[in-house]
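Example record for the data management plan.
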Amino acid sequence: MTGGKKIRGSLTALMWGAAATGAMAQSSPFDMSPERPAQTAPAPVSPPVVVPPAAPSQPPPVPLPAIPPAQPPFVVQPAPGAQPPQRPVVPPVTVPPRQEGARPATVQTPLSPADSRRRYILPYEKLSLSGETDRRQWGIYLTPEQANAAVSLNIGYQNAIVVAPESSNFQVSLNNVPLDVARIEAPDGEGNVSLKIPPGVLQVGSNVVTLGVQQRHRTDCTIQSTYDLWTDVNPANTYIGFNADVAGAFTNIDDIQATGPDGKAATSIEIVAPSLGNPAFADSLLRLSQALALRTLMPNQSIRFVTAPSSERKPGTLTVLVGTAREIAGIAGALPPEASAGAFAGFGSAVPSGFSPLFVSGPTPQAVQAAIETLFSSISRAPGSQRTAFSTRSWHAPDVPLITSDRRIALSELGLESSEFSGRRFRNEFYIGMPADFYASAYGEASLLLDAAYSSQVLPGSHIDIYVNNEIASTVPISNNGGGIFRHLPINVTMRHLKPGPNKITIEAVLMTAQDQACAPGAPASTTPRFALFDTTEIHIPDYARIGRKPDLAAMAGAGQPYRAARSPVALSLDRFDTDTMSAAATLVSRLASVAGHPINVETVASPLVIGDRDALFVGTISQFPQALISQFNLVPSSQISWKVGTGVQPPAQNSETLFNDWRERVDGGVWEGQVSSFEDWMKRNFDLSSDTLRFLPAAEQPYAPPANASFMLAQGLSPSGEGVWTLATAPTSAELLDGMSAMTRENRWGDVTGRVAVYDAAAAKVETVEVERPYFYITGAFSLSNWRLIAANWLSSNVLSYSLAFIGFVSLLGFATFVMLRLMGRHR
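Corresponding structural encoding:
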């Protein structure tokens, strides 16, 4: 019996051993994947599982799933060769922490199949191509994989019902290679045009996209009818189509430039920082945000700090994981091995969905800071080097040249080509850039040396108009019959509408013909050129006055002044170190770095009381700042509690002068019964002179209270001693602070930031400003007698009464000197 029991025990052990061996030889745990092809390599073998002794009645254990050692972060990848299982998405998987205190990894939803094969390209939140001819030109950056996989260009649009489809079309080119011509024929709903991209047209790196229209009216032949022609382009349906999932797959640091916009023309930089709540790490995070902003250089980008990555992947978003290897190991899942050895800034392995996060890490905080500095390696500027252009390529190509002194530039250097036109209203535009200390808005004149021609069809009464930043600056009438040619015809253009930063100059030719006046029904549109503009036309900017002014939000918005040239670190004061406030501050600082062309040296401070007279930035909700600080910006102190009237707080009463001026604007054009007001209206109507012009000295600044409809405010003032420039970015709540900052820093609104106060109305989506009444001047360059003469000319032109009194005084002094000289040298001597 004993031998039989031993034999049966041996057989039982042998059977269990065979079962365990079969379990260990199993390729992978049970899944619902389809059967793999025969040529597919087998899945990795799971590690042996030690089975503890158990009663014979217990079934053999199922081996645990194996975690691939080089798995990219956020996405659980199926076994090689297997198709994705057709089952509901499982909840996030918690991976055991690698080190004590590490966070569990988070599974992120990959890019959708459509978004992973699309690269949205439109940098404009709203793009309306209007008139008979219009176009935009900008640059995009493509990775090697994207350049090779691009197959089509899609345009989503809707046009006015009066646009004639038989004679209206898109004119699209990539790198100056024209694509197929497509009709404009979607008046009743959104239409789509898909244009094939020939092989070899797109290149790795920078590419130039030109999107234009040629439109004709269905029935009308008047000049006025050309203003009814428009085609709105939808950024959500305007993209480059790929034949592979390469939209978000990045492998090289230079690929950061390929982040691009999303379907709303916005670019988001999501910085995942587990140590976000540590104030000691704030300076490093702000420097990292500037490096990323300078690399992407998108016009509508915003920074968002989070402590854990979002679960949804979106196009136009760059996700960055920053922190020590120990801090981000649990979030990232699998880190590149370089991150544990030293400073590392680079992308991890891409997953099939086409998502690649950027890792900025190292074994120590010092290594993380060193990794951040490596991002500046190819974009930093040599100390003392002079800037020559504004980086606008992502929304306008080529980059806008910076004009700092007397200079003539041909239109060919500004991106325009010679063109012929057969319609009624020709329009084309270009950009020039002015420095932060530009000071010639009251007296200066530039010249447009026009090279153009018009045919004998053009009648007298036609004219050529020049606009500066959408304001009329000059008009040239066409008064000759029989056609004519302009060869460097000088057209004086006032400089009063120029401002620091890029400035748009538009050339518009209004052409009247006998054929259009007759407007025969059913007559075909004319194809004979009536007007030609040659790219040899030049813009001449003479020497102008240069001196810094403060406060001046236009100089800050246009060129980052004075923070771009601060001799000491710019102090940054935050009301709290939460995600919304830090994100708003990073968005502002990154925007300043983008317009300045280099990073801003920023130092966070614990309290506004320790700033002293340094240049400073203040970011936070208005109720959290000291009342003395609010008064420093010439704001009404009660604004801290009365900004939002809906809270039940009684708004402060307006002073009599402000109330009177408001009523004067309301009844403009009505009956005035006072003598002073009647005389002032007569002077304004006949001589374009007002009380602001006829002043001896600039008026004193009046305290400002933000209106109830405003949701965000930028205000600029001086430090207590007047040496430093302080800028306040504030809102009633932290949510409005973040949203308002993102809205204000968009390209189409950032250019409207001028004066000493700029407020944003979210409901109306517009910016309102308050001009500086009495600015303070400071020297920005070496002494020059010629420059001081120009400064005096501009100041006296802004203060006509002072100029008149100075002129009278000078004439009186000259008369007295002449009288004395004649008495001393007269005939009686």
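Summary line stored alongside the record: The longest strand covers residues 230-242.
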